[in-house]
Amino acid sequence: MSVERRPEERALDRLILELREQPAPDLDWQRLETRLMREPRAEAANPARSWFSRLRLPAAGLVAVAAVATVVVARQQAPAPAKLTAQVSRAPLNGDQLALGTRLTAGNHALVVDHPGRARWTLEPHATALVSEGGEFLTVKLESGALSATVVPNPKPETFAVEVGGARVAVHGTAFRVERVAERVQVEVSEGTVAVEPSGTRSAPAFLLRRDSRGNFALDGRTGSVEGNASAVISENGAQSRREVTNVSPSANAHPHAAAPALSAPPASPVPAPRALPLQPSISDIEAGVSSALAVLNRCFREQTRSTGIRVSASTGLTLSVAPDGTIQSVTFAPPLAPAVEDCAVKGLRSLTFTHSVEGVTFTRLLEVER
Amino acid sequence: MTDLTDLVERCKAGDDLAFREVFRNHRADVARLALRMTGRPGDLEDLVQDVFLQVYRSIKDFRGQSRFSTWLYRVTVNVVLMQRRAARSRPILQEASDDSFGADTRELPDEKLARARRVAAFYRLLERLSDKKRAVFVLHELEGLSPSEVAKVVGAPVLTVRTRLFYARRELLELLRDEPALEFVARELREEPSAEPLTEREST
User: Fold this and answer.
1) Higher per-residue pLDDT: A355 or A85
2) Chain A contact set for B196 (CB, 8 A)
3) Structural domain boundaries of chain B?
4) Nearest to A244 by CA among A279, A198, A280
5) Is B118 close to A43, i.e. CB distance below 8 A?
6) Are the C-beta atoms of A58 and A118 separated by less than 8 Å?
7) Which of A41-55, A111-125, A329-343 has the highest mean pLDDT?
8) pLDDT per residue over B73-112, tens digit each?
């Protein structure tokens, strides 16, 4: 049947015809065949190419965190995560070239995004994520599915974060996995430390998950339950915990430093204070405490690390939470230090006391130590 | 057992010679479809290689429930779409000879040059369709697959394929007005008597 068409339709038909008549592309078939016949055999011989090995070079350059990075990277290489590598079929994307607002969706295969020397994240099959912050502090919004990340330790905390709904999962350490399941966020930490907090409140982590721990959180990041090796709940201002439900159950095979007192009990309810007490410890009191903390940290770093004849330094963000009675309520290092150094430091810091106050205080300082 | 079935079975058994044969028999079809899906001759060689690597990996999953060509189309479309998603997140490198569609046009006669420009412009229009619409449009309008075959390739109901085709064509008609390189095609056609329409196909 012949149909009278508008000029635009006839133009489109003509273009379609022209395209159909285009000759088949002429490629260098011989070269392509040679490449192709070489590739499958190479792939069959080496099916699980370890992409972790690429982290070795950037890690070597991180003198500032040498003590931490070496330990962490070595641990990553041993238990190669088969569930990740088995599904990765393509070369990673260069994350540093992704424009802000780029939305990535993995198809039937995982999609790997590499920020050279800093982080590598894997979007699991059929998951979708949006790059929402670039530069020094990377943030990825996970819209559906699951995402795993391996982050090279950095002196600056929270250089990589995943946001799911209103919850923010910020990296203090190295390897973790986040999955959005309906209206919940599941987080598993296999290396280092991860903070889960409401988005937009970067300074005050609500939950800290450490190695071999996992948690299940509401999409706003304010409530949830955690279990495993270690966890912590830190209030926003030292006076009121965000936590509504927390189920901390240390695992039977906890890591030796699982009991490190980076964990804290929920802060006690504010007690009516005598009028003479200040609202919070004074600045001078806090600064004196920081000096003492630095001395403790330096001592532990010297005692607990081996002397190699090479100058080694480490930077970490120390967060101290001080109770109204002046005692230390929680101690957090982000990024974490070597377990032995951290255990030693936590013991020393626990003995610090501050002046009594109505609310207590939580503060963070970036400290550098060296030997 | 047909030759193709035999080849596929040998591929599944890891016979490299059979795989080479499959490559030689189907490489032109794969390259043509990949080019029509992307409009980028510069990426074509890598794409074709990726498609056949994927064929090599997953041919064991081909159960013969559809024609091999349909399965190969499906693999090609999936690889192209994956590549496009990845490419969208990278800086776009404008191909130097974009207007001429990869050809050196310096020595082309006027008509061939004009044609090459129209083809390049049309690819620009196709590029502006969503992945789903572009896929069904290319498979149906350019590759000549019926909507039911397209449905098998893209894994969507036939009705959905028809709907996508309808909207793809409508969008292209609108886009056509804004494409300077194609504007004269429409103008020329306005001035000449009604041309013979394309053969009616199953879809429209």
Assistant:
1) A355
2) 2
3) 1-93, 101-204
4) A198
5) no
6) yes
7) A111-125
8) 999 999 998 887 776 655 443 333 444 444 444 445 567 7
